Amino acid sequence: MTLSTRLFGEEERSMKKDRMPATAGGGNLNAFLGEGTSFKGTLTFEGTVRIDGRLEGEIFTKDMLVIGEGAQVTAAIHAGVVVIGGTVHGNITAERKIEIHPTGRLYGNICTPSLVIEEGVIFEGSCTMGRGAGQVGEPPAAEPALEQERLLAR
Questions:
Q1: How far apart are CA 29 and CA 109, in angstroms?
Q2: What pLDDT is stored for residue 31 in this prediction?
Q3: C-alpha 35: how far from chain center
Q4: Rounded CA separation 123/115 (Å)
Q5: Which of 8, 135, 139, 150 has an alpha carbon 20 to 30 Å from 79's alpha carbon atom?
Q6: What are residue 5's phi and psi, to 5 degrees?
Q7: If pLDDT is split at 50, 70 and 90, which confidence band does 130 have?
């Protein structure tokens, strides 16, 4: 067994790749918060970051966040793409897409234009989708029926 295998768990990670690749898209991994590691605060990054440990706070990126199977994340998340295989407590705004794999657990509200939820997922919260969903700072558009009712009431 090589030092890198012991330090980074390459053998164990390669077995999990069939279920959820290290970057869930084949891109380069810029940072990694491994099992047994915890972070508290605001995480801002470019590129792809994978979390397999514990994180509490806020996460901001226009790129990809991968939350591995063993991860425990309690955070408000604003990202381009979020891939969930672990447990997340908090609201997520994704500019492009959210994927939740079978081992994923999400307790919070989401706003995204594209959502993939695989069988076996636990999702407790609400979801806002559609044109403009996932763009930070934009309130969700009023439902057409409610808007029409409001106009008729004038």
A1: 27
A2: 82
A3: 17
A4: 12
A5: 8
A6: -65, -45
A7: confident
Amino acid, res. 52 = D
Q: Which distant-in-sequence residues (6+ apart) come within 8 Å of 37 by Cβ?
A: 52, 53, 54
Q: Which residues fall within 8 angstroms of residue 128, CB to CB, at 6 or more apart?
A: 109, 110, 111, 112, 140
For residues 39 and 44, what is the distance between their CA atoms, to the nearest angstrom? 13
- Sole residue written with tokens 């403009």: 132
Judge whether residue 152 has pLDDT over 90. no
CA distance 23 to 2: 23
**DSSP 8-state symbol, 94:** E
The residues, ordered by sequence, that sit 6+ positions from 56 with a Cβ below 8 Å of its Cβ are 38, 39, 40, 73, 74, 75
Contacts with 2 (C-beta within 8 Å, 6 or more apart), sequence order = none
**Closest by Cα among 44, 139, 46, 125 to 84:** 125
Return the DSSP state at 8: H
